[in-house]
Design goal:
Layout: H1 2-32, H2 49-54, H3 85-95, E1 98-99, E2 109-110, E3 113-114, H4 131-140, E4 152-153, H5 159-173, H6 180-185, E5 187-198, E6 203-210, H7 215-228, E7 242-252, E8 255-258
Length: about 260
């Protein structure tokens, strides 16, 4: 009988503890949930005219006043200085780079004769040359072909060579650089070269037909042609084992070109 009473008491206490635990969980769940906003319903009522007249007048807020802006003074532009004629001539002579053969530099030889360097004539002030000026310089000073020479110029009008020559010009110009020392010193000029492309695209003979008057420019042109090789193989429909090209390499302050 005593054990049964203990069991009943234990059972009642267990139920009470479970009920308290469930109530605590329920209370915590309510506390963690965000409170929903309470909306107060508002009813819009149109008052009669008599009531509206009894209401106090609505006072408008006073206008905002800003402090006055400071007075702006007119900008004064300085008058540009006018140079005299002697100043213009002196400035123009400093801007022109050196052209031709410096003292002590030997010119290239053509057919065993010394060829004096001539300053190329341009249509505009140097060093700003147009594309037409560059092409005219390349054509004007090109040495004549020797007897038995079957070479063609890089700007030839023969249709079968035009596509290959266009690619060849881009290939050489991609490695051609204006020597920094020559640019700083103001050296510029045009040299003419002749080189052979073999059937497999390798470089054959390479020679300078006419020097630019500066060894540093001549060496750079020869280096660019050697580094650009090998070239594309000669097309089979040409039926040629060797393709000879005569080209002008132009160095001017606006850049370096192959024509």
């Amino acid at each position: 009988m005593v054990q049964r009473q203990y069991f009943i008491i234990f059972f009642i206490i267990s139920i009470a503890l479970h009920a308290l635990f469930a109530a605590a969980l329920l209370l915590l769940s309510h506390l963690t949930q965000p409170e929903e906003p309470v909306f107060t319903p508002v009813k819009v009522v149109n008052l009669p005219q008599q009531k509206l007249k009894q209401l106090p007048p609505i006072q408008q807020p006073p206008p905002i006043t800003y402090p006055p802006l400071p007075e702006r003074r007119p900008l004064t532009v300085p008058t540009p200085k006018k140079f005299g004629k002697s100043d213009e001539e002196r400035t123009h002579s400093k801007m022109l780079p050196r052209i031709g053969k410096p003292e002590g530099v030997e010119q290239g030889k053509e057919t065993g004769k010394t060829v004096p360097s001539e300053a190329p004539k341009t249509t505009g002030p140097l060093p700003f040359l147009t594309q037409q000026d560059i092409d005219e310089l390349a054509r004007k000073g090109m040495p004549a072909k020797k007897p038995g020479d079957e070479s063609v110029t890089l700007d030839t009008d023969e249709f079968k060579f035009m596509s290959y020559n266009r690619w060849l010009k881009i290939k050489v110009e991609s490695v051609l650089q204006y020597p920094e020392i020559a640019a700083i010193s103001g050296y510029q000029g045009t040299l003419y070269v002749r080189f052979d492309i073999l059937k497999d695209g390798s470089l054959g003979d390479l020679e300078v037909l006419k020097s630019s008057g500066y060894k540093i420019l001549d060496d750079e042109a020869l280096r660019a042609i050697r580094d650009a090789a090998p070239f594309q193989q000669l097309p089979e429909e040409w039926h040629m084992d060797r393709y000879s090209v005569r080209a002008a390499v132009i160095f001017y302050m606006s850049g370096s070109y192959v024509r």
